[in-house]
Each structure stands twice: as structure tokens, then as C-alpha cells.
Amino acid sequence: MIGVAIYITIKSLWERNKNKSLIARMTGHDCKTVAKKIKEIEGGKEYPTKKLHPRILDPYQEQIMK
Fold this sequence. Notes:
Structural class: mainly alpha
Number of domains: 1
């Protein structure tokens, strides 16, 4: 999975008219992965948001606050 920082890097390099193979070399990712992300960028997809995971203590938060 590509993180937000890499996504933004790929997007900014692509907007500066760098080619896919150069972006792949610069980021250390496979050309196919870079091509996939560029296709998503051109399709209007925004960078992935972080998934919220429930914390272990969430069910007990009210008791803790008391």
C-alpha cells in the first residue's frame, strides 16, 4: 500500500511533467504501481485517508473520564 506522502510525491512529480519510469526510480516503486496511482490521480481520486481503527479502551472511555 502506498502512503499519503508517496501519493503526494507521485502527484507532484506527475504535475511537473516527469515520466512514469523516472517517478518509479525516484520513489523506489514499481512502474506498474506508479502507473496505477497516476491513473487514479487523473481520474480525480484524492489521496487515501487514514482508516479509523477502534482503540482497545474505547468501550471504557466514559468510565475512565469519571
